[in-house]
Design a protein that fits this description.
- The chain is mainly alpha-helical.
- The strands form three sheets. A three-stranded antiparallel β-sheet has the order 1-2-3. A three-stranded antiparallel β-sheet has the order 6-7-8.
- Helix 9 crosses helix 14 and helix 15 packs across helix 16.
- The chain is extended.
């Protein structure tokens, strides 16, 4: 059948469309990209692979599993799988993981390197997780401390994906992480929600001690919530000063999707206009990086400048060790920086928290931050402790957290008829109001009920209010007007219905009508 595509395009449109190339020869038909296990760069590349397919068919060595048939799983070791996974998945697809894949694979290869892939069982992975919990960290400020649950989970996630990839490539029949629909290996619990907030006073000190370029980056982080990599990759062509809009291209975002971020403050606009000028006072070209110096050289890592500014903002005398390097603070400064506990990513959390405090819905905050799930956005919402204490204090005053329009305005109190205190009368229950007195005969008891009186301004009162206002003895007296007795009965039923939420007996509807959750 030769070279073709399974689409409706013709001519040049077919050559340029994203559909995969297929090749067929003497009854053998395969997807060339899958058969060669790599991306097809164009029609010429596809034709070259088709020629290799024809040669393999003529020689009798054709294998529909691939140009290089997979090694039998019985003899494939984990180290060989790791190399295939690195070359054919991580690097071939251009994943961001490619920068650290060797570092991430190191503990896995050290543990399962020479072990046959098919012999790895669920118990082996559980033992590996148990040993990770005992393994101390090496290097950096946290040297000697045990691995955090997040670090353990990163190893579990990578190993799980490698096993699933091996199943998809037919190196394995099943993954040791699952048995049917049952999950056998679960991740460790992570308490990954930070509560660190940046106060206005702390923000002012931080901006005052920071260098001009670092000050610009801090303002951009606080007013847009962009990630560090997104800011450093930003170009002036991505900024629309007329619409006050920043475009974050999908090639620079973590999710790979393009999103738009407004320029909300005057100080951010002034910062961007200042960054636009070079040393001669001329505007930089559109291709230039936004965060670049006067010559146009882009800003790289600013970790050392950030640590210095944080320490100075908290009145700490910054001292670096003689051997240099941003990791080598003096022991006193290192301990002070750990106690301050202010990370760069906390500025992004601060942006989200301020939006929520100003009433912005979480769905909009999610879109501004570029999150795929609103669950992640909820972790960024860190309410101030003062606001939480003020909300909880409303319980003492008998207030609700967020009054609805129906409960914000109370009806005017009814005009009292006659006020008597319950202390002057014997205690009686509300049901006594509708009981006939002892002097009432059967004829009176079974007499037809007269029509109720027209509703008056007392209809808004509850049964308990009427019980107090007319007095229990008068209500139970045989001389009480029959019409008033029926009115009391109607008010009793109305009060009971109001307490139950009307005709709807669902208690959830009653609660939601009085409390607004946010």
């Amino acid at each position: 059948m030769g070279l073709y595509k399974l689409c409706e395009h013709k001519g040049r449109a077919r050559d340029r469309c994203p559909h995969p190339w297929w090749g067929g020869y003497r009854g053998h038909r395969v997807s060339l990209s899958r058969w060669a296990n790599r991306e097809i760069l164009g029609k010429d590349d596809a034709a070259s692979l088709l020629e290799q397919l024809r040669k393999a068919v003529r020689a009798g060595t054709f294998d529909d599993r691939g140009l290089e048939p997979p090694k039998e799983s019985a003899s494939l070791t984990f180290a060989e799988l790791a190399e295939k996974y690195k070359q054919r998945h991580v690097i071939a697809k251009g994943l961001a993981l490619a920068k650290v894949i060797d570092y991430r694979l190191k503990p896995l290869v050290e543990r399962f390197g020479d072990q046959p892939l098919a012999s790895i069982r669920t118990a082996d992975i559980e033992d590996f997780i148990a040993d990770l919990k005992k393994l101390p960290r090496s290097g950096g400020r946290t040297s000697g401390r045990p691995l955090s649950p997040a670090s353990i989970n990163r190893n579990i996630e990578l190993l799980r994906h490698m096993m699933n990839w091996a199943v998809g490539r037919e190196y394995l029949d099943r993954t040791p992480f699952r048995r049917g629909t049952e999950t056998l290996i679960r991740k460790q619990y992570e308490d990954n929600q930070r509560r660190r907030r940046l106060t206005e006073e702390e923000e002012g000190k931080l901006l005052s001690v920071a260098a001009p370029m670092l000050r610009s980056v801090i303002i951009a982080a606080l007013d847009t919530g962009m990630r560090r990599g997104e800011m450093l990759a930003l170009r002036f062509a991505d900024i629309d000063f007329g619409r006050l809009l920043i475009t974050l291209r999908g090639s620079t975002t973590k999710s790979g999707k393009t999103r738009f971020v407004p320029i909300p403050t005057e100080r951010l606009r002034a910062v961007l206009e200042w960054l636009r000028l070079d040393a001669a006072g001329q505007e930089k070209p559109d291709e230039a990086r936004v965060f670049s110096d006067e010559v146009g050289d882009p800003v790289g890592s600013f970790r050392r400048a950030w640590m210095t500014a944080v320490l100075k903002a908290h009145d700490v005398d910054v001292k670096w060790c003689a051997d240099g390097g941003w990791r080598h603070l003096s022991p006193e400064c290192e301990e002070a920086f750990r106690k301050i506990d202010l990370h760069w990513h906390d500025l992004r959390h601060e942006y989200a928290s301020r939006l929520v405090e100003h009433g912005v819905p979480l769905a909009q905050v999610r879109d501004l931050l570029g999150h795929a799930s609103i669950t992640t956005t909820e972790r960024y919402d860190n309410q101030k402790l003062e606001n939480l204490q003020a909300s909880a204090a409303k319980l003492e005053a008998g207030k609700i957290f967020a009054p609805s329009p129906s409960t914000a305005t109370k009806p005017a109190p009814p005009k009292p008829r006659k006020v008597r205190t319950l202390a002057s009368a014997p205690a009686q229950t509300p049901s006594d109001l509708t009981r006939p007195s002892r002097g009432t005969n059967d004829a009176t008891r079974h007499a037809p009920t007269p029509p109720p009186m027209a509703p008056s301004n007392r209809d808004a009162a509850t049964f308990c209010q009427v019980f107090v206002k007319i007095g229990p003895q008068e209500a139970c007296s045989a001389n009480v007007d029959r019409a008033l007795e029926m009115e009391l009965k109607a008010l009793k039923e109305k009060g009971l219905q109001d307490w139950l939420g009307g005709r709807d007996s669902n208690p959830d509807n009653v609660v939601q009508s009085h409390v607004s959750y946010r």
